[in-house]
Amino acid sequence: MPQRYATNPAQIPGMTTADLRETYLVPDVFVPGEVTVVYTHHDRIVLGGAVPDGGTLALTGYPEIRSEYFLEHRELGIVNVGGAGTVTADGEVYELVTGACLYLGRGIRDVVFEDAGVGSGAQFYLFSAPAHTAYPAALVSPGEGTVRELGDQVTSNRRTLNQYIHENGVQSCQIVMGVTQLHPGSMWNTMPAHTHDRRTECYLYFDVPADARVIHLLGERDETRHLVVADRQAVISPSWSLHSGVGTAAYSFVWAMAGENQAFDDMDAAPVTELK
């Protein structure tokens, strides 16, 4: 399990583009026939992907988390960003269509990923955080969570936000997770940018056209940097870093957080006039 060590704002000014990408970008989330995971020391989050590619894949324990099985001391949010697939958790089979979200709580021993049929092409995005207690597994289909319409076409950030795992939805210890889809003609995923010193947030960008990219902003408001992000790549955003992004075409993204609280609106805006 590759590890990404925690960073602080003072490191940003001296980082090269390569440094930034090695520290905050996860470029190869989905590898056919594999479960890939990355451990970040920011809030001890594990993120990754599972691509059954016609077979079955099991989520195992890893020496880096010192657990007999993956969910011995953790919880897990899963969003399917590919074709239809199934997740079997301790014998219970959950069918995930494209865009569905599954929560699995602490204590589930066996987790297996499969395609729903030959060539269905399921791609499961995984986001995990430590858990102090067990909450029930829960599956949410697209549109069944809390749906919020945000932004304005005038400012190119009209978007539909689907909240799945949150304090008023699927219960968890600390994970907050959902999917945002930008409307045609909109490119900003949030503006103004914001921070929340109480939570680390990870973005998985998907539905990004092959010839398009997302420019993801990070850093402090008076010392910003950016990452150029392609389809199905993820970004680790520390709690002290602002996060916002603009694409060369409309796209979608999975947002997921873990940390001090689960209040979605607990954020500190960084007005564009303050950015440098």
From TrEMBL:
Which family is it part of? Belongs to the KduI family.
Name used for this protein in its record = 4-deoxy-L-threo-5-hexosulose-uronate ketol-isomerase
UniProt remark on cofactor binding: Binds 1 zinc ion per subunit.
What exactly does this protein do?
Catalyzes the isomerization of 5-dehydro-4-deoxy-D-glucuronate to 3-deoxy-D-glycero-2,5-hexodiulosonate.
Stored PANTHER family = 4-DEOXY-L-THREO-5-HEXOSULOSE-URONATE KETOL-ISOMERASE
Q: Which organism encodes this protein? A: Agromyces seonyuensis
Catalysis: reaction(s): 5-dehydro-4-deoxy-D-glucuronate = 3-deoxy-D-glycero-2,5-hexodiulosonate
Q: Which Pfam families match?
A: KduI
One GO BP annotation of this record: pectin catabolic process
Q: In which pathway does it act?
A: Glycan metabolism; pectin degradation; 2-dehydro-3-deoxy-D-gluconate from pectin: step 4/5
Cofactor(s) this protein cannot do without: Zn(2+)
Listed InterPro entries: KduI (IPR007045), KduI/IolB_isomerase (IPR021120), KduI_N (IPR027449), RmlC-like_jellyroll (IPR014710), RmlC_Cupin_sf (IPR011051)
